[in-house]
């Protein structure tokens, strides 16, 4: 795993899940920034790669650098505003697939813990019941697994809010951090080749046609 702060984006070819006159949906590979980071060495990112074929591409939402999966971009101002409003008012439905350390129980549940940036340790976030912003995540266990690396759980995560690092912090707070997380996992839970978090499905309303659309990307781990 790369040392925190290093940036070596993968050369994975772009995988476009959908495109039309108003939006483009991609399957972001793990290790690639959604947008440029600070410094010229972090200029390579998903939106820059998309701009080669879609010069009018506009940001709607982001995925963490280490998270893979479904991400949508707008291709004009009206679509950007419409889609952005959907995310802001929680009218999109997001399903993530994750592998956790240990056996998470019960089979379903909700984490309801307010989050805020941990300023002395940025980009880490942490739970703060006084100044944190509301954050809720539902989970559903897919299956428990036992392998050479220890007990793990495959789980579907449904965030009801969209705070930074929400899924990563919430799962760590349950005592079952996401495997391969360089910020919130410790010991053997951290010793995996990537963050085992993938945006598997996204449901939204098309900004022009009004049709409900669901986009999916296969889980790569």
Mean pLDDT over the full residue set: 96
Question: How far apart, in Å, are the first and last alpha carbons?
Answer: 16 Å
Largest beta sheet, briefly?
9 strands, mixed
Helical run tally: 3
Structural class: mainly beta
Number of strands: 11
Beta content comes to 25-35%
Identify the CATH class of the domain at 96-197: Alpha Beta
What would you say about this model in short?
The chain has 221 residues and is mainly beta. It has a domain at 96-197: Pseudouridine synthase, CATH 3.30.2350.10. The protein has helices at residues 46-53, 77-88, 166-173; strands at 16-19, 23-28, 68-74, 93-101, 108-112, 115-117, 125-127, 136-147, 150-159, 197-205, 212-216.
Structure description:
Helix content is 13%, strand content 33%. The chain has helices spanning 46-53, 77-88, 166-173; strands spanning 16-19, 23-28, 68-74, 93-101, 108-112, 115-117, 125-127, 136-147, 150-159, 197-205, 212-216. It contains three helices and eleven strands, in the order E-E-H-E-H-E-E-E-E-E-E-H-E-E. Strand 10 and strand 11 form a beta hairpin. The chain is globular. The two termini are 16 Å apart. It has a domain at 96-197: Pseudouridine synthase (2-Layer Sandwich). The protein is mainly beta and 221 residues long. The mean pLDDT is 96.
Task: Lay out the secondary structure.
Blueprint: E1 16-19, E2 23-28, H1 46-53, E3 68-74, H2 77-88, E4 93-101, E5 108-112, E6 115-117, E7 125-127, E8 136-147, E9 150-159, H3 166-173, E10 197-205, E11 212-216
Parallel strand pairs: 3-10
Antiparallel strand pairs: 1-2, 2-3, 4-9, 4-10, 5-8, 6-7, 8-9, 10-11
């Amino acid at each position: 795993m790369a040392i925190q702060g290093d940036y070596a984006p993968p050369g994975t070819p772009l995988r476009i899940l959908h495109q039309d006159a108003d939006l483009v949906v991609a399957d972001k590979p793990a290790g690639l920034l959604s947008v440029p980071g600070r410094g010229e060495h972090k200029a390579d990112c998903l939106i820059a790669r998309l701009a080669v074929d879609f010069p009018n591409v506009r940001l709607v939402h982001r995925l963490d650098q280490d998270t893979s999966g479904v991400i949508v971009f707008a291709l004009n101002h009206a679509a950007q505003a419409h889609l952005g409003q959907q995310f802001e008012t929680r009218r999109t439905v997001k399903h993530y697939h994750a592998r956790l350390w240990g056996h998470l129980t019960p089979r379903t549940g909700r984490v309801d813990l307010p989050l805020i940036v941990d300023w002395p340790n940025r980009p880490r976030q942490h739970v703060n019941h006084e100044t944190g912003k509301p954050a809720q995540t539902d989970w559903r266990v897919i299956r428990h697994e036992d392998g050479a690396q220890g007990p793990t759980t495959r789980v579907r995560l449904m965030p009801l809010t969209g705070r930074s690092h929400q899924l990563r912090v919430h799962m760590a707070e349950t005592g079952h951090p996401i495997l391969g997380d360089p910020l919130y996992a410790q010991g053997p839970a951290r010793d995996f080749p990537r963050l085992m978090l993938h945006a598997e499905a996204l449901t939204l309303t098309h900004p022009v046609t009004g049709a409900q659309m669901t986009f999916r990307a296969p889980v790569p781990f």
